[in-house]
Specification:
498 residues, alpha+beta, Uridine Diphospho-n-acetylenolpyruvylglucosamine Reductase, domain 2, Uridine Diphospho-n-acetylenolpyruvylglucosamine Reductase, domain 3, Vanillyl-alcohol Oxidase, Chain A, domain 3, globular, binds 2-acetamido-2-deoxy-beta-D-glucopyranose
Length: 498
């Protein structure tokens, strides 16, 4: 008790002499935490009003997430993450954790007036060629990982875009081109090093802390901070790629081909896509875009044959390495305010998907006055073979998806320029989604699955997981974070409710 009081007094003194945070805007406990972190390791803390701090507040994809924390701490290893967490818990300070800074909405990986625990400086990686695995620290992006695997002719199923960070994507599930063969990113994790809320460091594998191991496969940031992922890697020295665009007259066929490709995917050959429809509100031009990637050198890649009868307005086929393919797939960092939101439907419902697309086109034309409007309709495909991986690997994952039905996520991805339009755009997306999802429910073709990486902040992905899995997550949480550090102090993304 006395030592705690003394500790508090020291902190208070330190706060007075060295802190430049704005106490009237800091959350409770935050000045205490920033002072203690500064005292322990001044070089690892950034305070407002420095150029580096300013630059770091922009290290987020969505301009909406560029908020101002009271301080940022950059631990350089797992021990320092543990020390930082101990300080945050003892000061009762609210904090956010940032890996790559990709999840878009405010509060998902940054915090106004709190502490930002940034993992970006923990970056080492090592490949074990014999085991075909790579150990990755959380400060890396997927472009870093693919670069490290490249000399060995290895590849793994991480992010599709270059700048996506490793920890965020891996903890929420993770879409890659080759989910059809390897499952989701979480399904390729062999081991996690985790710092728990009380600062204790544990390793979770299929045989050690196996309940935590399962919970980290899709259970997000409710249990601890992962400081190392060991990922399965796969021999894929070369990939065959195709980029095709289509005009508005071909959109119905484009959607049909996407549905056909998904339901016919047997998962034998690693292959997958990014499928999107863009509406340029300046020129009124609508276009479909397919990015297709397949393992091996067969060119054009045969798994996209469903599209061959549609006349493309542009087509580029290539054979290259994963490293080169990913190296120019930039995400539009700080380009706009952007919101994702979606629902999920059976993959064979192509006529209904076309109807939804047509309704989207009308809905977009009604909000054309929004400055900087950048509307995209995305189809994220989930062939049933992707769910078979978790069903058959003896571990499973939090999603618990059945593997007898292929699904398609139909997603709004909408950019705009000004904060004044935030509420209007949110209401627009929400109304559109709920209206059309209700129709799909009535038709018996809806799935309640929601993917955290593409969900709107007003959606709740936990409602789409099997209820027994959500209960199991709560049980795991009560065992590994009895102090509820990640429930009560840590903001970010989609939290498991109490
Ligand atoms: C602290 O924040 C308040 C509220 O935003 C603001 O009015 C005040 O000017 C700030 N003070 C300093 C020193 O930045
Ligand atoms: C993070 O790492 C970079 C590159 O090594 C270094 O320049 C920077 O000082 C580090 N930042 C902090 C806050 O430790
Ligand atoms: C095609 O692949 C080669 C080999 O990796 C690469 O140098 C080239 O930039 C690629 N071309 C396109 C258009 O992507
Ligand atoms: C719309 O098309 C114009 C002309 O090609 C282009 O300059 C602009 O960047 C496009 N806008 C969007 C949002 O794609
Ligand atoms: C930290 O929490 C874990 C999980 O509840 C527990 O096993 C461990 O003993 C705790 N460590 C300390 C030092 O209290």
């Amino acid at each position: 008790m006395i030592s705690q009081l003394l500790f508090g007094a020291t902190l208070f003194a330190a706060a007075k002499s060295t802190l430049a945070t704005n106490s009237s805007t800091s959350r409770p406990g935050v000045d205490c935490a920033c002072s203690a972190l500064l005292q322990k390791n001044p070089d690892s803390v950034l305070l407002p009003a420095s150029a580096t701090f300013e630059a770091q507040t922009k290290h987020f994809w969505d301009i909406r997430s560029a908020v101002i924390p009271s301080c940022m701490v950059f631990p350089s290893n797992a021990d320092e993450v543990s020390e930082a967490l101990t300080v945050l818990a003892s000061c009762n300070a609210q904090f956010a954790v940032r890996g790559g800074g990709h999840m878009n909405f405010p509060g998902s990986n940054n915090i106004e007036g709190g502490v930002l625990l940034a993992l970006n400086n923990i970056t080492d990686m090592s490949v074990d060629e014999a085991a075909s695995t790579i150990a990755v620290r959380p400060g890396n992006t997927w472009a870093d990982v693919y670069g490290a695997l490249d000399p060995y002719g290895l590849y793994t199923n991480g992010g599709r875009m270059k700048t996506v960070g490793v920890p965020g994507l891996t903890l929420i599930g993770g879409f890659h081109y080759f989910i059809n063969k390897w499952g989701y990113t979480m399904d390729s994790v062999k081991s996690y090093d985790v710092v728990l809320g009380n600062g204790t460091q544990v390793v979770a594998t299929s045989t050690c802390n196996s309940d935590l191991f399962w919970a980290l496969k899709g259970g997000a940031n409710n249990f601890g901070i992962v400081t190392k992922f060991v990922l399965q890697a796969y021999k894929v020295p070369q990939i065959s790629t195709t980029i095709q665009s289509f005009d508005e007259a071909s959109i119905e066929k484009f959607i049909q081909a996407t549905s056909e490709m998904t339901i016919n995917d047997d998962g034998q050959v690693g292959a997958g896509s990014v499928v999107s429809i863009n509406y340029n509100v300046t020129t009124d031009v609508i276009s479909g875009l397919l990015l297709g990637v397949q393992e091996g050198t067969e060119s054009p890649p045969s798994r996209f044959s469903a599209y061959t009868n549609i006349p493309p307005t542009m087509q580029i086929n290539n054979v290259t390495t994963p490293k080169v393919w990913h190296s120019d797939k930039e995400t539009p960092n700080q380009m706009f305010r952007v919101q994702f939101a979606h629902h999920t439907v059976r993959a064979d419902a192509s006529a209904r998907l076309y109807e939804i697309y047509q309704a989207w086109k009308v809905a977009v034309s009604e909000i054309k006055d929004v400055e900087g409007l950048y509307p995209t309709f995305v189809l994220n495909v989930m062939p049933k073979s992707a769910a078979s991986v978790a069903k058959n690997n003896g571990v499973g994952n939090v999603w618990g998806l059945p593997d007898d039905e292929s699904l398609i996520i139909w997603q709004l991805s909408t950019g705009w320029a000004n904060a004044e339009d935030d509420l209007r755009m949110t209401a627009w997306a929400k109304n559109f989604l709920e209206y059309h999802h209700a129709i799909n429910q009535a038709m018996g073709i809806a799935s309640e699955f929601l993917y955290m990486g593409d969900a709107g902040e007003f959606q709740n992905p936990y409602l789409g997981f099997p209820a027994e899995n959500v209960q199991r997550l709560r049980d795991v949480r009560s065992r590994y974070d009895p102090g509820q550090v990640f429930t009560k102090l840590n903001w970010g993304g989609f939290k498991l409710s109490i």
